[in-house]
Specification:
elongated; mainly alpha
Length: 67
């Protein structure tokens, strides 16, 4: 279970990013860009968190493989 947790957290951030981006695009098409900036910011932060979690997981797997 301990090895699956980083992967699950990575997937959660990916889902947040995709959901936020879809919501931002939908809101942009209906209302306008100025009202949906916050959703784009949330998607960007989720993308950064996804990348960070993926980097941490890969480096941890690499360190365990070297031992």
């Amino acid at each position: 279970m301990k090895q699956k947790l980083p992967f699950i957290l990575e997937l959660i951030w990916l889902l947040v990013m995709i959901t936020g981006l879809l919501a931002a695009i939908s809101k942009t098409l209906t209302v306008g860009f100025s009202d949906s900036i916050l959703l784009y910011v949330i998607s960007g932060i989720a993308a950064l968190m996804y990348g960070w979690r993926r980097y941490l997981r890969k480096s941890q797997e690499k360190n365990q493989a070297e031992k």
